[in-house]
Amino acid sequence: MFNKEKVKLGIAPIAWTNDDLPDLGKENTFEQCVSEMALAGFTGSEVGNKYPKDPQVLKKALSLRGIEICNQWFSSFLITRPFAEVEKDFRAQLEFLKAVGAKVIGASEQSHSVQGLEDTPIFGHKYVMNDEEWEVFCKGMNRLGRIARDEYGITLTFHHHMGTVVQDPDEVERMMENTDPEYVSLLFDTGHFAYCGADPLKMAEKYADRIRHVHLKDIRPEVVEKVKKENLSFLEGVRLGAFTVPGDGCIDFDPIFKVLEEAGYEGYMLVEAEQDPTKANPLEYAIKARKFIAEKTGL
User: Fold this and answer.
1) Where are the transmembrane segments (predicted)?
2) What's the predicted TM-score (pTM) here?
């Protein structure tokens, strides 16, 4: 069993209000979102677009509900923008995260990303970096990770993601081999590995010692197959329900939990399953996920 003192459970606001598809959950407020997170039994959250921008206001609202911020997405553009520009945005976000007490930042390289393009198929259209771009990217990640760790006490975890330059297992491997473990860790996302055709269990086994944040996400394989066959975009797949909470899709989480447990994983495991809240009631699915995780892990 996981150590309850060292492993905590969180849930992302994207099930209530979707940052990439603002019409999904536009009726749901910040207060409803975080109240229902607490009601479902979670103690951590990532940052959503509706969250207060003032750290003190945010901390007060969350502390009333027994919740803390455990991570926030950061869009890096290391291969298409000057490093100084990326660093400025990165530091601003680190200042915010430090002020709210977060220990992790989740970076995703968004240069040439097609994940947010509603008219571009998610399969077969991702950008592939050349050797020069790989070098710029990996060196840039090391620099960002060093800034985060040494100056803010925050761990940089890299989020592999559908439609981005680091999506497939070989790309994750190249990034891991060419970045410093002292500065760059992995944000392990079960759903994004399964979506691109990788085995999440094998990925967990391979990178267990560098995983510092976990996204627990399941997929509905029939929807992913439809996305592939009909050349649909990533966001069209989200609308159709490609993702769901752990235990509601096809991923076998038992051996994944076992690998993380045996590796001595510490930190947050966060349910992150973006769906249409009018089709998948956020509180209902949050409770379903919480029960599943409790049954499988004892947490």
Assistant:
1) none
2) 0.97
